[in-house]
């Protein structure tokens, strides 16, 4: 559905020189600073995917999204959406795209929310009956009713984000590009937005590419993550295999009824990091062994009562890959 091939974007900005006759000199020779924001990125996205596009600040995420949506032209390489270039066939492609930039609203600041929808409907040539039906559905899913008549500038951040999502979906696109849609929201608002995005993907089959610094967004929503760092692709795959690849240990807490007898050595490479009265904490690397095999060993050391497993912290996993 989306193919990105050897995509590059280099920004050229004029160097600010200091000293005398600067203006005169720059008339004859202009020096530029080059910034390779995206360097040779390739990936494909299938229909129905829910992908987290993540990376540290300045990694090149927004620049990629801007090229995917046709706002920016690549320096080289190509983007194809449903077989068409968003740069060359902008009109045809944007019909299939819904875009939300969390930091910037596409709604008209001083107008009531519903007026923005009227303008967008006219721009996309959506018939009145279709507009009313879609708005009705979106109103129900996103709870827009309470602020339809309120000017956008008076909305809370959570309300504005819901209003923006509805605006991006009004023309019923099948692909959504979301750049930080939960930024600055409180826990409740984040939960609402996540629930909505999950419904869009699972029940309505929308394909979603999500950029976020919130690792809970990623863990709760994305089947696959693409990691970009310094403009280059660092990882593309499932969260589970990312965890495995980074190889942080799973922490397992085992409780015993009564005494535990820990032998001097055992045959598997797991470590005991804490030992208390009837309790063991074990670090077990899933790359090296199955947790079940470790449990088989420790169950022989006493009368096992309970097992509690903690997967490696996802923030920590991501931190490792950003380094
Ligand atoms: N119009 C521009 N002109 C010059 N440099 C730019 C321009 N837009 C972005 N850059 C630079 O390109 C790099 C990538 O920026 P981009 O906004 O794509 O990063 P990002 O991954 O979205 O970061 P963040 O998480 O902070 O939003 C940065 O170094 C940025 O300063």
TrEMBL record:
Gene Ontology terms for molecular function: ATP binding
Pfam families, alphabetized: ABC_tran
InterPro entries xrefs: AAA+_ATPase, ABC_transporter-like_ATP-bd, ABC_transporter-like_CS, ABC_transporter_ATP-binding, P-loop_NTPase
The entry's keywords: ATP-binding, Nucleotide-binding, Transport
Domain named ABC transporter: residues: 22-255
Protein name: ABC-2 type transport system ATP-binding protein
Highest classification ranks of the organism: Bacteria, Bacillati, Bacillota, Bacilli, Bacillales
């Amino acid at each position: 559905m989306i193919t990105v091939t050897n995509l590059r974007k280099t920004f050229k900005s004029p160097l600010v020189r200091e000293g005398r006759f600067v203006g005169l000199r720059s008339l004859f020779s202009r020096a530029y600073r080059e910034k390779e924001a995206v360097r040779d990125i390739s990936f494909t996205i299938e229909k129905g995917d829910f992908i987290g596009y993540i990376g540290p600040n300045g990694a090149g995420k927004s620049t990629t999204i801007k090229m995917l949506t046709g706002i920016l032209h690549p320096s080289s390489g190509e983007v194809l959406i449903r077989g068409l270039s968003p740069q060359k066939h902008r009109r045809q492609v944007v019909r299939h795209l819904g875009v939300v930039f969390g930091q910037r609203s596409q709604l008209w600041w001083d107008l009531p929310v519903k007026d923005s929808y009227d303008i967008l409907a006219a721009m996309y040539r959506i018939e009145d009956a279709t507009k009313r039906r879609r708005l009705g559905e979106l109103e129900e899913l996103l709870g827009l009713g309470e602020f339809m008549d309120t000017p956008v500038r008076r909305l809370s951040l959570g309300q504005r984000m819901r209003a923006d999502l509805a605006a991006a979906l009004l023309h019923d696109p099948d692909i959504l590009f979301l750049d930080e849609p939960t930024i600055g929201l409180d826990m409740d608002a984040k939960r609402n937005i996540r629930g909505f995005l999950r419904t869009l993907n699972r029940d309505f089959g929308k394909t979603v590419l999500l950029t976020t610094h919130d690792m809970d967004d990623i863990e709760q929503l994305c089947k696959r993550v693409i990691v970009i760092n310094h403009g280059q692709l660092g990882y593309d795959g499932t969260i589970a295999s990312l965890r495995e690849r980074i190889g942080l240990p799973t922490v397992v807490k085992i409780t015993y009824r009564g005494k535990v007898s820990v032998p001097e050595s055992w045959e598997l490479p797991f470590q005991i990091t804490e030992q208390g009265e009837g309790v063991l904490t074990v670090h077990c690397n899933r790359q090296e062994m199955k947790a079940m095999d470790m449990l088989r060993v420790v169950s022989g050391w006493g009368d096992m009562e309970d097992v509690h497993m903690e997967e490696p912290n996802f923030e920590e996993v991501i931190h490792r890959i950003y380094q």
